Amino acid sequence: MNRSYDNKITVLYQEIKEHLTIPFDKFKLVVVTKSQEKDRLLEVIKSGHTIFGENYVEEAIKKIEFLKDHKAEWHFIGKIQSNKIKKLCKYFDWVQTICSQKHAIILNNECQKNDKLMNVCIQINLDNEASKSGINLSSLDEFLGGLDDLKYVLIRGLMAIPKKSNILKENQDSYNILRLAFEKHKKERENFDTLSIGMSGDYINALKNGSTMLRIGQHIFGVRKK
To answer: Which helix (H) or strand (E) holds 60?
Structure first.
């Protein structure tokens, strides 16, 4: 297998630019490196890309330590566990999966101890699936209000994973509903500039619906080995 990802990422960026609805300098591509070997990440860095997303804290720490001499930005995109929040604070720049006020408060307190400002997204359970984390969109106003006093978490926007059947059918409804909610709060809240939606199976559809941040793994690395 060719371990150089220059061409794949270049082609992906060309597609992104074709469908992007925001200025390119306001967009971020998060390369999802779950289950990938450390040397693959090094190849991605050599291609000029330095923004990575990880689902599991302990797995991520090994990669972050391995790449500590390289300037990289790390996004946590997995399910949050209370006993891992201290490590989230230490190792990550973004936490995209906040959906518990308790977790937000613990994260804020840990960041305060370290005098660190953490970028966060609120995870929305867009289609109310029991198997997924996230808050109901109808609870968003109340949830955000409960975080207003936290000084060490910077609420940057929303993150969601659309229902698989909606992705396959290119159903626009869920994406559009989320986009409208994002645009509403963007007007009302400072620094609210991130709509993290779109993965390998739906990134073009997500871009058409206002995504400012894609989380792409399989499209770059191929199907993960189980």
So the answer is: helix 57-66
- Model pTM score: 0.93
**Whose structure tokens read 């518990």?**
100
Output the six-digit token pair for 120.
């966060």
Burial of 128-157, coded b for 16+ CB within 10 Å and e otherwise, reads eeeebbbbebeebeebbeebeebebbebbb
Give me the amino acid identity at 69. D
Tens digits of per-residue pLDDT, 109-159?
999 999 999 999 999 998 778 878 899 999 999 999 999 999 999 999 999
Helix (H) or strand (E) holding 140: helix 140-145
3-state secondary structure of 99: coil
Are 110 and 132 in contact by the 8 Å Cβ rule? The answer is no
Name the CA dihedral angle for 184, 188, 189, 191, rounded to a multiple of 10 degrees.
70
In the chain, the amino acid numbered 1 is M
Tokens of 216: 């792409």
Residues 77/215, Cβ–Cβ less than 8 Å: yes
Partners of 141 in beta bridges? none
CA atoms of 77 and 114, how far apart (whole Å): 22
**225 vs 63, residue with greater confidence:** 63
Please count the other Cβ atoms lying within 10 Å of the Cβ belonging to residue 11: 11
- Rounded Cα distance between 156 and 161, Å, is 17
